Amino acid sequence: MTGKRRVVITGIGMVTPLGLTAGDTWQGIVEGRSGIGRITRYDPTPYPCQIAGEVKNFDPLNVLEKKELKKYDISTCYALAAVREAIADSGLDISACPDRVGVVVGSGMGGFESLSHYMKVFWDQGYQRVSPFFIISSIINTLPGVISIHTGAKGPNYSVVSACATGSHAIADAYHIIKRGEADIMITGGAEATVHPIAIIGFANIKALSTRNDEPERASRPFDRDRDGFVMGEGSGILILESLESAQARGAKIYAEVLGAGMNSDAHHITAPNPDGSGVGACMSIALKNAGLKPEDVDYINAHGTSTPLNDPTETKGIKLAFGEHVRHLAVSSTKSMTGHLLGASGAVEAIITALTIYHQILPPTINLDNPDPECDLDYVPHKARPGAIRAALSNSFGFGSTNVSLAFGRYQP
């Protein structure tokens, strides 16, 4: 039965504040290095938040020809770079089976830079100066569309939008598409590029962002008593998901197996989680059930861990509800302490990091955890990575709109 198909990860690609490849990003994670600094994209001096996790030294001309760049937002360029890396990493020849390869890639805010730019052009210069490429550069489903055009993938093709849970929802959908037999291979993940004054101000004005401007590298401090908000990041994470049969037939490398996904809603507040942790706890329990896992089978959780006053204790409560007594045997960390929060791309980047955690048997650290919040009393792997025996792991993503996703991954066993 197609519903019993196993799904594995055979390729990865990342563009993040820690590097332009998955290898560079993973090295930064293992080293406990921060990718956060003072904003260079524009002069942030007048604004309350002056820091972000910017992608550094990225040349879009390495992805698209100059004449093509005017059509697409920088977020699309990030995604295409990560797609190329993931396909090369997987050794995949899409031309051999184009109808069996699909794309589900999302973004929280889409072509935000393009949207902001052309709004200014409209008001300052008039409607005649608005580019005919404005729409395609700003709508979110340009991402999977461009990816399919550039790769030749002719299977299911659409985008997902669910704020900070976007990348994880995309992976969950891609997983189910393969399980149902509607495709054998899926290109999936997320991309985001919102290091822009109006986006930063929007989050700053709802008191969501850190204003630790004098210490950018120490600003993202999940589970720490002195945390004061998240730090914006940008980039893309792309995974190649594949049926086990397809991966075995072509001798592909397998990073990890996708075991299941949990999805639900807090039904509580448009921007805040239910503080009792019941919603996020139930989401993790759903993921465990769908994956056929018991709490004691899980060794690691890559937490949503935003470094906001509300998220971190709520997620901690949810983990305790889902895992009970086993919680004292769990390692939990937030890699947002190093990458910042990539919004719609965060779930995809963190899913890749979780897969690499399993593949390399190395637990990523939570850096800047100097003074743990008394409400946050789990093993958050403070400061330094460490080896660990990881059989199965969860990756959590929670978003505005009261939406939750928890992805379950396991060490590949033939």
Question: Strand order of the main beta sheet, please?
Answer: 5-4-6-7-1-8-14-13-9-10
The CATH H-level homologous superfamily of the largest domain: Thiolase/Chalcone synthase
Biggest beta-sheet profile = 10 strands, mixed
Radius of gyration: 20 Å
Helix tally equals 13
Q: Uncertain regions: pLDDT < 50 for 5+ in a row?
A: none
The CATH class of the largest domain turns out to be Alpha Beta
Number of separate structural domains: 2
Share of residues in helices: 25-40%
Termini separation (Å)?
Answer: 19 Å
Order of helices and strands: EHEEHHEHHHEHEHEHEHEHEHHEEEE
Number of strands: 14
Instruction: Write down the overall geometry.
Output: globular
Identify the notable features of this structure and list them briefly.
13 helices, ten-stranded mixed sheet, Peroxisomal Thiolase, Chain A, domain 1, single chain, 2 domains, two-stranded antiparallel ribbon, 14 strands, alpha/beta, 414 residues
Explain what this protein looks like in three dimensions.
- By secondary structure, the protein is an alpha/beta fold.
- It folds into two domains: 2-249, Thiolase/Chalcone synthase (Peroxisomal Thiolase, Chain A, domain 1), CATH 3.40.47; 259-410, Peroxisomal Thiolase, Chain A, domain 1 (3-Layer(aba) Sandwich).
- 32% of the residues lie in helices and 18% in strands.
- It has helices spanning 22-31, 66-69, 74-90, 112-125, 134-138, 142-151, 166-179, 197-204, 244-249, 278-291, 311-323, 336-339, 346-360, and strands at residues 7-15, 37-38, 51-52, 101-106, 157-158, 185-192, 235-243, 256-265, 300-302, 331-333, 362-363, 386-387, 392-399, 403-410.
- α3 crosses α6, α7 packs across α13 (346-360) and α10 (278-291) crosses α11.
- The protein is globular and about 65 Å long.
- 57% of the residues are buried.
- The model has no long low-confidence stretch (mean pLDDT 97).
